[in-house]
Amino acid sequence: MPATVVVGTQWGDEGKGKFTDLLAKDMTMVVRYQGGHNAGHTLVVGGEKFALQLVPSGVLYSHITPVIGNGVVVDPFVLLSEMQMLTDRGIDCSKLKVSGNAHLILPYHQVYDELHERSLGSSQLGTTRRGIGPAYADKALRVGIRVQDLLDEAIFRKKLGLVLGHTNKVLSAVFDREPINAEELADRVLDECLEKLRPHIADTVTLVHEELESTGKVLFEGAQATFLDLDHGTYPFVTSSSPSAGGACTGAGVGPRYLQRIMGVAKAYVTRVGSGPFPTELFDEVGDHLVEVGQEFGTNTGRRRRPGWIDTVMLRHAVRLNSLTELSITKLDVLDKLDTVKICTGYEIDGQMVTSMPYHQSELHAAKPVYVELPGWQQDLTQITEAADLPAEAKAFLAEIEKQVGVPIGLVSTGPGRKQVIEFSDQHA
Question: Got the DSSP string for 61-110?
Fold first, then answer.
């Protein structure tokens, strides 16, 4: 059975959770394939807000098996806290499965993350300091501790002792910090987490393949977005994993032949958290409007996001990298009151017009956006449910994005609620 992937096409915070939730009603399994609790997403269901960090969006449907894949890094304390929050609000988490091959984030990762980021001074990357990068670094160094290690106390204690033997030397010699006691940490993790997590630990590769090879429907959910991808993003201002569609294969343990529908999600504008190049960034009252009306503050951190006009140079590149079959647009309603709206269609670099993403970081930092400017619609879109009822100016804005990126726009979100979605591609011709 073919699978669906939902990916972000910008720098994250595009509203992927809403479309994942929307698609999930027709799925039997939703799989989170990378990232950690540095990527929150907010869903609004029946007027209630659910801010999720690790648990896949599909948990809100009783018929779905939510899966945390091997490509995710898991803070067991955060996961259990999130599961308890959902349980307290009447959401059943009993079906949740966590890959035994997923790597653990433990307190020393967060300590190291905080100290290392501080040490960079003015060159800080803007990480969430949640320990995600150090956990992936340990994975690459082959000293990481996996979820399955919790099931064998002797192995868990041995591995923790080995990795802390090295980490404590760095903390002491480089950062002048007290060492972390391996035995005390092992006791805490095993006492507070093991029995609660045990029923959820599974061979998720087999579970996913059994679902794909039956009549099931599987949705793969990424965190962050294409331009935060470790290989293809604006390095070094990126995350430590692969949020692009290819990451679904390695992060969940499936081959690419299963991936048939690949939906990219983009905001009607762009935001970015932390440092890094941003050609269309706005520093004026329009930027302030996007932040205030769009509530552009981090789900996890509360940090103000950097705003800018939508950039189709980025989106064209995202189409290539992910083999997108369609694009979905969120927060179109945030632009409702603007007199004019802009779409970046190219960059001017050293006097030359370019329409593809520059590969060299210096060129991207020097890029000046070239815009198409269109009239705004100055009409409330939040109650519109049919594409035919959209103002002509809003249709023109979306049509120009389609023209620039070369794939159809399927869904358009006009508000945070589940029902504030328009099926655009079939109705606007």
Answer: STT-EEEE-TTBEE-HHHHHHHHHHHHHTT---TT-EEETTSEEP-HHHH
Beta bridge partners of 202: 99
Could you give the C-alpha distances from 146 to 98, 113, 247, 296, 305, in angstroms and in order?
Answer: 11, 19, 19, 34, 33
> For 76-106, how does the pLDDT look when each residue is reduced to its tens digit (9 = 90+)?
999 999 999 999 999 999 999 999 999 999 9
Q: Residue 175's pLDDT is what?
A: 82
Q: Residue 364 pLDDT > 90, yes or no?
A: yes
Q: Nearest-CA neighbor of 338 among 272, 399, 413, 282?
A: 282
Q: In what order do the strands lie in the sheet with 326-330?
A: 201-202, 97-99, 65-68, 29-32, 218-221, 3-8, 259-267, 326-330, 409-413, 421-423
How remote is the C-alpha of 417 from its chain's centroid?
19
Buried residues in 293-306 as b, exposed as e (16+ CB within 10 A): ebebebebeeeebb
360 is catalytic: no
Instruction: Examine the residue annotation and report whether 209 is marked as an active-site residue of this protein.
Output: no
Helix axes 312-322, 245-252, angle to 10 degrees: 40
Measured distance between the N- and C-terminal CA atoms of the chain, rounded to whole angstroms: 31
CA atoms within 13 A on the CB side of 5: 31
Residue range 132-188, pLDDT digits in tens = 999 999 999 999 999 999 999 999 999 999 999 999 998 888 788 889 999 999 999
Q: With 0-12 CB in 10 A as exposed, 13-18 as middle and 19+ as buried, what is 79? A: buried
Other CB atoms within a 10 A radius of the CB of residue 66 amount to 24
Alpha-carbon span 85 to 307, nearest angstrom: 31
CA distance 28 to 26: 7
pLDDT for 81: 96
C-alpha–C-alpha distance, residues 228 and 262, integer Å: 18
Measured between alpha carbons, how far is 36 from 104 in angstroms, rounded to an integer? 10
Q: Find the helix or strand (DSSP H, E) in which 352 lies.
A: strand 352-354
Q: What is the pTM of this model?
A: 0.91
Stretch (H or E) spanning 251:
helix 245-252
Q: Which is the catalytic residue, given 21, 37, 41, 317? A: 41
Number of neighbours of residue 368 by Cβ within 10 angstroms:
13
Residues 312-344 pLDDT 10s: 999 999 999 999 999 999 999 999 999 999 999
pLDDT at 152: 97
Beta-carbon contacts of residue 5 (< 8 Å; ≥ 6 apart): 219, 220, 222, 245, 248, 259, 261, 262, 263, 322
Which entry of 13, 21, 75, 138 is annotated as an active-site residue? 13
